[in-house]
Recover the amino acids of this structure.
């Protein structure tokens, strides 16, 4: 049983009541944390493309409705209260919630080969991961679904202890927020997953916030050539401010393919290619842009239309490798504090990803900015 001294909290949250419809800021009720859970006061959150994907998701008539639900998963906050059996956390701790957990006791968390906890595994939900129930209710007492067991578009949320990372309170809230998903994913893909080597060549397909974080990770690892690939000409200047050394715009290559151009620039292909868009044809081009014998392609983008990745077998016979990336291969509780320290000593400059800031009442503006391509990361302050 949970601690009966803890009470439900009334607060504001941005509620998504139907697929693709504007969010409504409403008063809701957030339950106390149950066993192994932490209730967090969210200080700030930000909008990620995954939020947009799940905001737009089409309902399956054969399954229970996902809506209404509270989106959001990239955030920074302070512990308000803890449930029974929670160790190592107390009220007032600075924390970030993460969609991926780390228990440090299962064989997966104890290993070096995966960051996917098997004790309390990732589920797309809705529902908390240990009991499948919600902690959110609207003002009429009707249940509200969560999103990947985080739901940070609320002034208070409840998250499993496996999904909460303590951070140094000296880390600026905006910076800590970015590390809980997009920044951690991009840097981690270069640093932890691909293990980019000093002096190597890298190509990053898509210079959105995750792609630019990959650029920062590759620069941190000592890559000597970092090629940014994007259809938006404005991304050339942006990319170079993050560490891009060369820029390729696929619309300006005439009859040549991107892979032909990258192969010519890198003496046979880049050693590491990162696909950060989520388009099958771009994934294919990324593989073709890697060096035979040692090239790695890391897929960070979720294919937008569900199309398969199709490649001739000879691409692999020549020693190329394709890797999938979940949260950039980082272990949240182990690696986020390390990345925070690297940001504080300026090895990483992820704060440049923040292009806009709004308050909770303006959350739909954050969606508009991202959909119009005007924003990298928009910070949403919960109680400005």
């Amino acid at each position: 049983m949970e601690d009966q001294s803890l009470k439900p909290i009334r607060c504001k949250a941005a509620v998504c009541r139907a697929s693709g419809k504007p969010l409504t800021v409403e008063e809701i009720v957030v339950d106390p944390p149950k066993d192994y859970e932490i209730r967090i006061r969210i200080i700030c959150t930000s909008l990620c493309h995954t939020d947009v994907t799940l905001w737009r998701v089409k309902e399956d008539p054969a399954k229970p409705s996902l809506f209404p639900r509270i989106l959001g998963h990239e955030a920074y906050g302070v512990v308000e209260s803890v449930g029974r059996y929670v160790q190592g956390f107390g009220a007032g701790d600075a924390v970030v919630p993460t969609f991926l957990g780390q228990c440090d006791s299962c064989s997966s968390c104890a290993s070096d080969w995966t960051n996917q906890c098997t004790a309390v595994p990732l589920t797309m939900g809705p529902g908390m991961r240990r009991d499948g129930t919600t902690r959110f209710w609207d003002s009429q007492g009707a249940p509200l679904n969560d999103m990947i067991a985080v739901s940070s578009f609320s002034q208070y949320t409840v998250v499993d202890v496996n999904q909460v990372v303590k951070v140094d309170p000296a880390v600026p809230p905006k910076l800590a927020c970015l590390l809980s998903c997009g920044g951690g994913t991009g840097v981690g893909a270069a640093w932890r997953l691909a293990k980019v080597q000093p002096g190597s060549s890298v190509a990053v397909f898509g210079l959105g916030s995750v792609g630019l974080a990959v650029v920062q990770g590759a620069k941190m690892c000592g890559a000597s050539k970092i090629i940014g690939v994007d259809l938006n000409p404005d991304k050339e200047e942006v990319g170079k401010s993050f560490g891009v050394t060369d820029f390729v715009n696929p619309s300006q290559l005439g009859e040549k393919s991107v892979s032909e151009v990258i192969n010519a620039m890198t003496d046979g292909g880049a050693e590491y290619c990162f696909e950060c868009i989520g388009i099958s044809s771009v994934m294919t081009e990324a593989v073709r842009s890697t060096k035979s014998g040692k090239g790695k392609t890391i897929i960070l983008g979720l294919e937008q239309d569900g199309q398969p990745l199709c490649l001739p077998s000879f691409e692999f016979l020549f020693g190329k490798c394709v890797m999938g990336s979940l949260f950039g291969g980082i272990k949240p509780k182990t690696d986020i504090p390390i990345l925070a320290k690297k940001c504080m000593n300026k090895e990483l400059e992820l704060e440049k990803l923040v292009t806009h800031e709004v308050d909770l009442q303006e959350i739909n503006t954050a969606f508009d900015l991202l959909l119009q391509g005007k924003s990298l990361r928009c910070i949403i302050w919960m109680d400005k």
Residues 209-221 form the longest helix (13 residues). The chain has a mean pLDDT of 94. The two ends are 35 Å apart (CA to CA). Residues 349-383 form one domain.
